[in-house]
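Figure 6 in text form: structure in, sequence out.
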């Protein structure tokens, strides 16, 4: 019987446990895997960390498609390293999720059956090489805005994974920006390619922060639990304010006629993304949803022999160790 089952069947016993949990959260301290936690807290974390892990893994696909077409050995090496980092991020996060009692195998099944989601952004195609730079700059940039506050999230393994991930994400953002800056110093055709790419990715990047606060029903509870530290709209505003001067330095514009500095607020005003499009993409009807999942499923099936061989090897090692111990 797990701690969670105990809590569910013995209501009287949950009060001191709940009080202890509330005190830890109230002090801004961390909950660790062996601590008691409410079922809802555990479920929310599993959903959020799994979705995050899946995003890292699916996010390898749009950029991975350009590894074989990178224009130089240097660009190929950078892109390869970046895509490998994303695989590593997925693994840290699946490991964090395992401490909550859910195996990586179960999570993978939920991803490829469509039962769990990943970030909507990775359902958009990468149509030109400039997209590699734009994804680094805007998509990894938006991820950093979302994830830096998560370094202080209340669940220990998640927060610790985020510290390492954020360091690598900031490298990703800079390599994207540097790539775009190089292209902007090239030919008119290259500059046009960058602007076209930014035009396609700007709105989907804003959608990465999730729906507006008044349409995000789970946010308040996540913030009360210290899982989430800032609201969707606050993070979106931070991202816009950060990106506008970077766009000016690059020499590109964002496709938003409402985007302007508001002196009174001390922030940029900006238009709303197409939230109907966002809901369609989340529901599985984006341009690449089917392709992304089919690719992930095939990779999982193609890797079955590796998992079987590793399991057989581990069993053999264990039996050798047992035989050795008995002798
Ligand atoms: Fe990542
Ligand atoms: Fe990244």
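Output sequence:
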């Amino acid at each position: 019987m797990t701690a969670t089952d105990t809590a569910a069947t013995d209501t009287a016993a949950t009060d001191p446990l709940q009080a202890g949990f509330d005190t830890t959260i109230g002090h801004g301290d961390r909950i660790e895997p062996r601590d008691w936690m409410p079922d809802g807290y555990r479920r929310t974390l599993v959903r959020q960390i799994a979705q995050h892990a899946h995003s890292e893994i699916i996010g390898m696909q749009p950029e991975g498609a350009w590894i074989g077409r990178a224009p130089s050995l240097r660009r190929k090496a950078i892109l390869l390293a970046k895509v490998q980092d994303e695989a590593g991020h997925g693994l840290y996060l699946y490991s964090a999720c395992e401490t909550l009692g859910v195996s990586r195998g179960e999570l993978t099944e939920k991803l490829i059956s469509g039962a769990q989601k990943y970030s909507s952004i990775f359902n958009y195609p990468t149509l030109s090489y400039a997209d590699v730079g734009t994804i680094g700059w805007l998509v990894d940039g938006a991820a950093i805005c979302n994830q830096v506050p998560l370094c202080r999230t209340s669940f220990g393994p998640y927060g610790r994974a985020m510290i390492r991930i954020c360091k690598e994400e900031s490298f990703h953002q800079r390599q994207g920006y540097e790539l775009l800056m190089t292209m902007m110093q090239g030919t008119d055709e290259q500059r046009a390619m960058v602007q076209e790419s930014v035009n396609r990715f700007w709105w989907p990047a804003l959608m990465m922060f999730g729906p507006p606060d008044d349409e995000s029903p789970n946010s308040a509870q996540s913030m009360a639990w210290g899982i989430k530290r800032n609201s969707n709209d606050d993070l979106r505003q931070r991202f816009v304010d950060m990106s506008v001067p970077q766009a000016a330095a690059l020499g590109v514009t964002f496709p938003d006629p409402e985007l302007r500095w508001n002196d009174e607020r001390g922030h940029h005003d900006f238009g709303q993304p197409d939230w109907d499009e966002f809901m369609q993409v989340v529901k599985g009807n984006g341009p690449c949803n089917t392709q992304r999942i089919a690719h992930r499923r095939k990779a999982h099936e193609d890797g079955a022999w590796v998992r079987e061989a590793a399991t057989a090897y581990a069993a053999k090692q264990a039996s050798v160790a047992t035989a050795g111990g008995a002798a």
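Caption detail: Residues 1-10 have pLDDT under 50 and may be disordered.
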